[in-house]
Amino acid sequence: METKQSPAFGKETAVKLYDAYERSFPYLRLSLTEICNFRCTYCLPNGYQPQGKPSFMSLPEIERLVKSFENLGVHKIRLTGGEPTVRKDFLEIIRMIGQRKAIKTLAFTTNGYQLRDHAEEWQKAGINAVNVSIDSLQREKFHQITGHDRRDEVLEGVEKCLALGFKSVKINVVLLRGVTDVELDDFLNYVKERSLTVRFIELMQTGDNKEYFEKFHLSADLILDKLKNLGWYEEIRSFDAGPAQNFSHPDYKGSIGIIAPYSKDFCKNCNRLRVTAKGNLRLCLFGEFGVPLRPLLQHDEQGGALEERILKQLTYKKSSHFLKEGFTGMMSNLSSTGG
């Protein structure tokens, strides 16, 4: 396997996945389902509405997919949804991926509703990093946003992961005007004595949320300015990290992350690819097309053809998502691609 110098990060990697802009892709976000049992106001306010009978990738298909991406140098996989834990074979999927030696980080993003009761068995199966969506620390607001009065048990799940010693525990907070700006100090206090990261994610416009976006969009600059004024400093970005700017403070055990997709050069260091629950390769969260991989996931001997298709598609990856211009591509809602 050819070793190539990564121009974006200046480190030696065995990644074969490079695009026309010399960006490397060691990171795969793999959606397991479009189904979610929460009804978050910014994503699925009316709950999951299936279009016909859903047919998501099977365990054997996922295994073939993971093997090919591993062969291409991917060493970090994040399982997403929808809500990935609604799959009955979620544990089997973790075990299968967790046995692959080249996958150094196996993470998942969750609404946390099963985390308290299953974190330990998921960790033993191979999960070593978790992101939990908690958009408000206030019980009533949490209920209003998610449609579920489960704040306490979700927070208990976070504490369980910390106690178990997960390599990474992060809380995802979608920035919402009238919510996050009011609770910012509460989130800063939350990380003061906890070794985790709270990540503030700027609300993104999708195909079906234009009115909601215009009402609730809150610029990430508000958080950045507050952090700088309080003495927080930006950390050096690691090779396989996501798009967040991370900040630390000497008086806090935890850290703060900012994901600002509308900021200048946000896509410059893009390092991840996405595969939807139905087996379509998405070069960008807001891409205008998906590449069907599922026909090449039916037999073990199709691995070579699958890898060739993935490599070829990278030549079509664009330099940016063009969100500032109002372009949302195929993105109707975040659960359809995996956020």
Describe this structure in words.
This protein has 339 residues and is α/β, with parallel strands linked by helices. It has a single domain (4-336), classed as TIM Barrel. It contains nine helices and 14 strands. Strands 9-10-11-8-7-6-5-4-3-12-13-14 form a twelve-stranded mixed sheet, with helices on one face. The protein has a two-stranded antiparallel sheet with strand order 1-2. Helix 1 packs parallel to helix 2 (90-98), helix 1 (59-71) crosses helix 9 and helix 3 packs parallel to helix 5. The model is unreliable at 1-13 (pLDDT under 50).
A few lines on this structure:
By secondary structure, this protein is of the alpha/beta class. It has a single domain (4-336), classed as Aldolase class I (TIM Barrel). Helix content is 28%, strand content 17%.
List the main descriptive attributes of the protein structure presented here.
339 residues; alpha/beta; TIM Barrel; twelve-stranded mixed β-sheet; 9 helices; 14 strands; disordered N terminus
Span from first to last CA? Answer: 31 Å
Shape assignment: globular
Percent strand equals: 15-25%
Give the tally of structural domains: 1
Secondary-structure element order, N to C: EEEHEHEHEHHEHEHHEEEEEEH
| Total helical segments | 9
CATH architecture, by name, is: Alpha-Beta Barrel
Multimerization status: single chain
* Count of DSSP strands: 14
CATH class division: Alpha Beta
Major beta sheet, specifics? 12 strands, mixed
CATH homology superfamily: Aldolase class I
- Backbone CA Rg: 19 Å
| Secondary structure: helix percent | 25-40%
Q: Strand order of the main beta sheet, please?
A: 9-10-11-8-7-6-5-4-3-12-13-14
Overall SS class? alpha/beta
Find the CATH topology: TIM Barrel
Weakly predicted, low-confidence segments: 1-13
